[in-house]
């Protein structure tokens, strides 16, 4: 990569409340957890931090509450090197929170309370218009109102700005609006929510991606966890294998993939290499606990990339 790419993330900022437990409780059951961590999260903020850790210049367009988490979130952006000029404190509204439960196998269950994220509106996008027009890539997710997501995609298309949409949490969307994105990057469950097709293996991912392309989407990357990622476009589909590790906590791995992919692609890597690099970066994020706190620095990534056999 040459000059650092300029990434703008329009999305969510949450506080993660992570509990580690050997088993998940049954309805009506109370059990003891093993450990608890409080950290900064939200898919938008996570992806911003991942892109920054990989060397991009990153700005965040978001809203936080006027509670104790709001100012702390803005301070966290500053500490992480993410520009928060367009992060607005919203009076009378709580910040977003995400209680996360992680079992002994490293699998997670997450409940998101959107709070101030739900107050991010098209007017906020217009207010950040100059910032967006300078971006090499704009990244979005679905923890903010769909109205704002669609508006941002149309704004970026109008000005010729590359966009990445991570359609998470999974839900049915207006595919005509989604088609304004240059890349749509779901995981298996999100791909099923978009297409109505189950995605349980690589063959089903191919079929799902083909259906989404036939629906008008430009390019689709289905992330498959330990099975890597499948990228599909008009020219066909390509499978990029995963970087194999023994995960400790998979929370935030998808966000690590999205943020790092945006950085690598906008920084000049071709698509296949950007995906392969993002697979490595996402795998490294599963080796320690948490979301943003698990995202490794560029030097650690470069070491792993050099030793991966693809770097």
Q: How would you describe this structure in keywords?
A:
single chain; 311 residues; alpha/beta; UDP-N-acetylmuramoyl-L-alanine:D-glutamate ligase; six-stranded parallel β-sheet; four-stranded mixed β-sheet; 22% strand; globular
Question: Mind explaining what this structure looks like?
Answer:
This protein is of the alpha/beta class. The protein has one domain (6-13, 43-96, 122-304): Ribokinase (UDP-N-acetylmuramoyl-L-alanine:D-glutamate ligase). The protein is built from eleven helices and 13 strands. The protein has helices spanning 43-53, 68-80, 122-127, 129-133, 146-159, 175-178, 188-195, 202-214, 253-266, 271-285, 298-307; strands at 6-10, 14-20, 35-41, 57-65, 83-90, 96-102, 108-110, 137-140, 163-165, 183-184, 220-223, 229-233, 236-240. A six-stranded parallel β-sheet has the order 5-4-1-8-9-10, sandwiched between helices. A four-stranded mixed β-sheet has the order 3-2-6-7. α1 (43-53) packs across α9. The longest helix is centred in the last third of the chain and has 15 residues, at 271-285. The chain is globular, with a radius of gyration of 18 Å. It starts with 5 loop residues before the first strand and ends with a helix. The model has no long low-confidence stretch (mean pLDDT 94).
Percent in strands: 15-25%
**Second CATH tier, the architecture:** 3-Layer(aba) Sandwich
**Quantity of strands, as a count:** 13
Mean pLDDT: 94
Q: How many individual domains?
A: 1
Quick one: CATH superfamily? Ribokinase
């Amino acid at each position: 990569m040459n000059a650092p790419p300029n990434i703008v993330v329009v999305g969510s900022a949450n506080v993660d409340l992570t509990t580690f437990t050997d088993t998940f409780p049954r309805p009506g059951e109370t059990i003891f957890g093993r450990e608890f961590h409080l950290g900064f999260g939200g898919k938008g903020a996570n992806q911003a931090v991942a892109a920054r850790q990989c060397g991009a210049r990153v700005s965040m367009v978001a809203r936080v509450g006027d509670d104790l988490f709001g100012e702390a979130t803005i301070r966290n952006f500053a500490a992480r090197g993410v520009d928060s000029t367009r992060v607005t404190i919203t009076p009378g509204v709580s910040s977003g929170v995400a209680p996360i439960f992680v079992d002994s196998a490293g699998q997670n269950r997450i409940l998101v309370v959107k709070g101030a994220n739900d107050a991010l509106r098209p007017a906020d996008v217009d207010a950040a218009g100059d910032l967006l027009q300078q971006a090499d890539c704009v990244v979005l997710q679905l923890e903010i109102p769909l109205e704002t997501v669609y508006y941002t995609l149309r704004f970026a298309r109008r000005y010729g700005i590359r966009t990445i949409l991570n359609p998470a949490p999974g839900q049915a969307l207006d595919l005509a609006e989604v088609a304004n994105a240059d890349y749509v990057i779901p995981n298996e469950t999100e791909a099923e929510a978009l297409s109505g097709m189950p995605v349980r293996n690589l063959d089903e991912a191919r079929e799902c991606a083909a259906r989404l392309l036939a629906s008008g989407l430009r390019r689709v990357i289905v992330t498959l966890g330990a099975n890597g990622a499948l990228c599909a476009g008009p020219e066909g589909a390509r499978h990029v294998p995963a970087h194999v590790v023994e995960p400790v906590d998979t929370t935030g791995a998808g966000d690590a993939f999205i943020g790092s992919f945006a950085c690598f692609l906008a920084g000049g890597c071709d698509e296949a290499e950007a995906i392969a690099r993002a697979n490595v970066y996402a795998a490294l994020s599963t080796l320690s606990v948490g979301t943003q706190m698990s995202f490794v620095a560029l030097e650690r990534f470069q070491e792993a990339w050099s030793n991966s056999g693809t770097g």
